Amino acid sequence: MAKKLPKTDVVIVGVGWGGGIIASELTKKGLNVVGLEKGEERHTEDYYMVHDELRYAIRYELMQDLSKDTLTFRRNEKIRALPMRQYGSFLLGEGLGGAGVHWNGMTFRFLPYDFEIRSRTIEKYGKNKVPADMTIQDWGITYDELEPYYDQFEKMAGISGEENPLGGKRSDKYPTGPMKQSPQLKMFKKATENLKYHPYMIPSANLSENYTNPDGIARAACQYCAFCERFGCEYGAKADPVVTVIPVANKTGKFDLRTHSWVRRVLHKDGKATGVLYTDLTTGEEIEQPADVVVLTSYVFNNVKTLLNSKIGRPYDPATGTGVIGKNYAYQVVKGAASGYFKDKQFNNFAGAGALGMVIDDFNGDNFDHTDLDFIHGGYLSLTQTGKRPIANNPIPKGSPTWGKEFKEKSLNYINRTLSIGVQGASMPYKHHYLDLDPVYKDTFGDPLVRMTFDFEDQDRSLAKFTAQKCSEILKEMGADKIDAMEELGPYDITVYQSTHNTGGVIMGADPETSAVNNYSQMWDMDNLFVVGATAFPHNGGYNPTGTVGALAYRAAEGIMKYHKNGGMLA
């Protein structure tokens, strides 16, 4: 029998960016909020002097224990799905702050095209441009409607940037200026300008200068130490929930944070969520936390898993295309598309920051003509300087020996004579890409795991090949003596790291028949249940998702306050 606790106004499941923002906003307005986090509590002090590549980047200190909870994967329905037992394609964060602790800090806004992708594509190119099994749909919100929330997130996090010349209109400039331009970035800028493109510095959550945000949170500038992705920031210079929104919630006295709390079910009765059931991992005790409003703010796979195991919403059926929970899973076409090798130039590639880079959007969204191309959307092309740590990086030209004297000589020669241009490609959803519950494999508590069915499509292969060619052209303009470019995009490989940009499964829209939540992240089927995060994306754009996750979280917080006051479905 589970121990039943007193009711609270709001219970949040997962305290990362989404949960932290919502806790901060609701407690400031007087609501009592319980935050349940499966992992441990964290503080900036935990990362003092821990530039340990082996511990954090190779052995995944900050990540979820896959022996207790993971997912299963298959490329199509004809194959038996098997559990992901070691990290590869993406990394699942665990602990206070979630993936917001170990991210790089690249903070983009999706393009206006993204939010109205189906209607805009058909309007310009006709219905035949969209393949029959591609399930793109408009988001039920426009860029202009979401823009104020982007601005709110950027000012809270102190995003350092400059205006995207091909992006949506801004109501205000970034709160801090762009990061420093290294010699390599200046080369990229000159080359892309020579090619008539539109380069700009990547919007960065690594502060370019000391900054105090509207909540009074003061943080120091980035030191360019190059230990961002897979690491916590010892300076607090990288915006993460632990150093921005969670302290604000704590200060109100209205936030009850409970770590080591594994939520297993959303409890519900007569079409209303009544609370959650969780296990205290320190004692093994089952606990029921009643609440007026339940908010799922954990990672994509866990949001979907929790809903399906709680029997909330209509599970997606790929055979009929009906149902919504698990629908439109998307990833990202992310590759180091081309590498250039320089005989007579050396670069300090070991230095950098997580979001230090220069980017062009000339081949992103619908910023270029797709009439004669066999794909839609695109991606950004960028030269980043995140810091080449020694264990994980050993660039040598194709055809080089992989052992012996020549291998060692080339390894030493090229480590600081190689520059790579990467692509962050958009991922379109398909009828046969989805998430459901695995019928065989279970987590440590006996609950079914999430099963992912996904593979790259012709759309992805064409997009990747097209953008890789553009990357090669830029490297040639930069003066590379030898260029290795991706020639073909192979099948999706879950064992090789690509990005942690999983999206979809509880998607947003204007129609309850084709979406799970409205544009306040409120579930159509249960009006006091909100599901916040990248699960809401009907497709994945050509950008890192965090900026859009943050904007949607601020809008969801506004929606929860409206619901708390008036009840009912929000319009």
Q: Which term fits the overall shape? A: globular
Name given to the CATH homologous superfamily: FAD/NAD(P)-binding domain
CATH class: Alpha Beta
Q: Which regions are unreliable across 5 or more consecutive residues at pLDDT < 50?
A: none
Global mean pLDDT: 96
Please provide the count of β strands. Answer: 23
Rg to the nearest angstrom? 23 Å
**Proportion in helices:** 10-25%
Fold-level CATH name: FAD/NAD(P)-binding domain
Q: If classified by CATH, what would the architecture be?
A: 3-Layer(bba) Sandwich
Tell me about the largest β-sheet: 9 strands, mixed
Strand content: 15-25%
How far is it from the N-terminal to the C-terminal residue, by CA? 39 Å
Family: Belongs to the GMC oxidoreductase family.
Keywords: FAD, Flavoprotein, Oxidoreductase
Organism: Lentibacillus populi
Protein name: GMC family oxidoreductase
Write up what this structure looks like:
The protein has 571 residues and is of the alpha/beta class. The chain has one domain: FAD/NAD(P)-binding domain, CATH 3.50.50. Helix content is 23%, strand content 21%. Strands 1, 2, 3, 9, 10, 11, 12, 22 and 23 form a nine-stranded mixed beta sheet that branches. A six-stranded antiparallel beta sheet has the order 6-15-16-17-14-20, with helices on one face. A four-stranded mixed beta sheet has the order 5-4-19-18, with helices on one face. The longest helix has 21 residues, at 458-478. The chain is globular. The two termini are 39 Å apart. Belongs to the GMC oxidoreductase family. This is GMC family oxidoreductase. Pfam families: GMC_oxred_C (PF05199). Residues 435-553 form the Glucose-methanol-choline oxidoreductase C-terminal domain. Keywords: FAD, Flavoprotein, Oxidoreductase.
